[in-house]
Amino acid sequence: MTEHGDLHFSRTFDAPRELVFACMTDADHLTHFWGPAGVSAPRDRITLDARPGGMFETVMVNDADGSEYPTSAVFDEVRPPELLVWTESHSGMRVRSEFISLGPERTEVRIHQTSVPEAFQAPEAQAGFLSSLDRFAAYLAGLAS
Amino acid sequence: MTTQTADTLDAAFAALADPTRRAIVSRLARGDATVTELAAPFAMSLPGVSKHLRVLERSGLISRRREAQFRPCHLEAGALDGALDWITTNRRLWDERFDKLDALLIDLQPAKKRTGRARD
Fold first, then answer.
1. Percentage of chain B surpassing pLDDT 90?
2. What is the mean pLDDT of residues B27-43?
3. Is pLDDT above 70 for A80?
4. Distance (Å) from the C-alpha of residue A103 to the closest C-alpha of chain B?
5. pLDDT per residue over A95-127, tens digit each?
6. Nearest to A127 among B11, B18, B91 (CB)
7. Which of A79, A83, B18, B89 gets the highest tally of CB atoms within 10 A of its CB?
């Protein structure tokens, strides 16, 4: 089922599924990649309790100017090594990460984000917004060109 | 994301959650148009189209000139920029995280160090 306003990302890694899953659920690993380019995620500021109801908090620090971007979420589902679901506390955005084994040394991670949910509770939205945000993004990019 | 940005995004997404309104926005991307011109492609009354235009106007996606007799509708590209920026930023965040995760996985598997990065 296509949910209201969702985003999909997929990436395939040359590593066993257990290891990729461990990287996403172990703060000692997460600190090395959670901050995107130019941003760090200090180990001592990560709280990661990978079980249903457990906290998932990070602070991403901009290397250039020190500005901080805290994130806070709660795990909804934790099923090693195949599934992680958390809900962001501030936005209500739900992030579902599926770990699919493509072989002993190859793993696909599929991220499915259900975003900006408040926007779709408006009566006019109930008519059915079936396009995903991916299609919406392509649509907007088309308008801009 | 600031509250104001979030509110603007909510309004933009909600306004675009309707195929008729998306078609109106597409039409306005090609240039300003009056209500009559916008209504022409749709089997819909002028009041029906006006209702959609009010939703789009409230969301900030379009504006209408107060002074002109036919009040042509104008697409406010800035309102779309906010939505597009948000999606683009969100996607880049994961892309860059996964670039770093790729590097980490190579470090964690010494035998793979010479194989380079995995890609889709």
1. 22
2. 86
3. yes
4. 14
5. 999 999 999 999 999 998 875 544 433 333 333
6. B18
7. B18
B3-79: which CATH number, 1.10.443.10, 1.10.10.10, 1.10.3720.10, 2.60.15.10? 1.10.10.10
Q: Rounded to whole angstroms, how far apart are CA atoms B107 and B85?
A: 33
SS3 of A24-56:
HHCHHHHCCCCCCCCEECCHHHCEECCCCCCEE
User: Class of the A6-144 domain?
Assistant: alpha beta
pTM, to two decimals: 0.68
Q: For residue B91, which of A41, A124, A115, A53 has the smallest C-alpha distance?
A: A115
Q: Which residues pair with A95 in a beta bridge?
A: A86, A113
> Measured between alpha carbons, how far is B17 from B13 in angstroms, rounded to an integer?
6
Q: Nearest by CB to A36, which of B6, B93, B108?
A: B93
